[in-house]
Amino acid sequence: MKENLVKTRLRNNQPVLGVLSNSADPTVAELCGFSGLDFYMIDGEHSPVTTAQVQDIVRACEVSGITPLARVRSSDPKLILQFLDAGVMGIMLPGVKTAAEVESFVQAVRYPPQGNRGFAPVRSVEYLLGEMNQGDYVAFANEQILILPQIEDREAVDNLDELLTVEGIDGFVIGPRDLAMSMGYYDGPGHDEVRKTIGGVVERIRKAGLVVGTTAATGDQARALVDRGVLFCLNSFAGMLKWAASDFMKGRQ
């Protein structure tokens, strides 16, 4: 396992920008890396990506110098384990609502004594053929893995004070669209009440000394978020392509 450069930047209070991608093609991850983005998040929730494909996507990330992360489809510890064993360096878990769920998430991601993650001579540990012994690797992995529960439900907002007390997490990522849906706004997060709620969540997470993340559709939006203290900004790969294509097509107007 290599140093998690995204986590290092966040610890130094530096912003990181990347994409959430539902593509199973490693070339997409490679292109994102060579384009200079900080992280490539495999979307294991809203996509057909299988755990068998994750390993090749992670390899493409490593070749192009981008940090591989993943959003998993459930809190199943065995599913999370497969992503981590393939070399993913951070996990985002959608739909958390209670402190107990966040605690279980942390337990699944970290090795003992901080968690319950199982150990095997797999890719993430260089198949036990690298320079680290098992003890050194376990300590290093626990330090380097990025743990980001996702807030996208009104119940999670109501329970936020409890969520913020869970040890072992690095921060929270806010999902504006699903949060708006849970608040009864089915046409999107542009309503004043949703914006006010998200603003309050951002401030509470920051005051707790944790990383705040959310979506940004453009560079200007990302800059505005960073100015508010949101250090983890992600766009969808499709959204980034659409924005770039629209900008390019101005050439024929």
UniProtKB/TrEMBL annotation:
| Keywords, comma-separated and alphabetical | Lyase, Metal-binding
Which stretches make up the HpcH/HpaI aldolase/citrate lyase domain?
19-240
Q: Name one GO molecular function term.
A: metal ion binding
Extract the signal peptide range.
none
Query: What's in the GO CC field?
Result: cytoplasm
Name the PANTHER family for this protein: 2-KETO-3-DEOXY-L-RHAMNONATE ALDOLASE, PHOSPHOENOLPYRUVATE CARBOXYLASE FAMILY PROTEIN
Domain of life here? Bacteria
Q: What is this protein called?
A: Host specificity protein
The answer to whether the entry has keyword Metal-binding is yes
Family note: Belongs to the HpcH/HpaI aldolase family.
What is an example of a Pfam family matching this protein? HpcH_HpaI
